[in-house]
Amino acid sequence: MKIAVYGIALNEAAHVARMVESCRGADLIVIADTGSEDDTVARLRAAGAEAPSLRVDPWRFDHARNAALALLPEDIDVCVSIDLDQRLSPGWRGAVEGAWTGGVNRLFYDHVYRPAGTSGEESFVDSRIHARTGFEWRYPCHEILVATGTEKSAFAPGLQLIHEPDDEKPRSSYIPLLELAAREGPDDPRCAHFLGRELYDAGRHAEAARELERGLRLPTGDATERNASMRFLAHAREKLGDMDSSLALFRRAAAEQPGLRGVWVELAWALVRRQAWGEALGAAERALAFPAGVRRYGDDTCPGVVVEDVACLAAWALGRPADALAYARAALVKAPASDRLRSNLARIEAAIAEGGAGVFGVSATPLKD
Q: pTM score, two decimals?
């Protein structure tokens, strides 16, 4: 079996060593450089990777990735798509070979997202490991890999792609590319979802609301992305001051997909912001009832969300300090770098030490949220 790692790069010299080292065991590493002005290319070649130049004009990510894929020799059996701010977990090749049986031509695996400056992470299923033929990239931005023929997929246990994103890289080109995608696919709800999400992240809340509303009016689409659109719309409406409509959307999202952990996480936070403590605790406990493991896109819109934190805030405000204490300790285990969680835990411990387990956590001295 011949395995190639491939990708595209632009001014990412700082990530080269870590990424290439994680890919040891590949028969070939090809990272197409799209115009770096630093020493990305020199570092790639020094590390043993091929680094051909690639020009895509006008720029779009799907064309760039398809061009990089085309650089791989035709005798490659397995292609592993990677970005330079990502790395493969130890033992990755064995995991790939173990799952690539019985005509499988695409692998699913855990994608672990660890943003800089936070102590949390998101984990979701990804699928960018594929056969040399029968697949192509689509969409100018937030591109996805699609099968052009018959697909037979499998999950590779133990294989992780760890993504520690480069926050220094500008995202200024994303919105024009997503607007292009929406023009190319006006009936594609995925285009509306990602454009609306990017507009929201850019602080353009009214525009985000309009685009997300447009997407939700379209008749088809992935149910989980649709639900995430609904929650982004709820956030946008809240930013615009429409609190009633916002809360109704959070409730609707939970009603439409009650089996998705993230709907309860976000509803709980929305209720905390409205100081509806009883309902907030109920929603948080619904989220906590889900088993640990692989999550789907949209389970936690914000990486680092700790639902035990929500439950702690609500339990304290409801006068249940013993419950608040248990939740505060559990939250800090998940996010040990959070000064706010540590401060809240210290306050709860001090209050119980002073007044006993029956002390009432009055909202006049609320915890930090």
A: 0.84
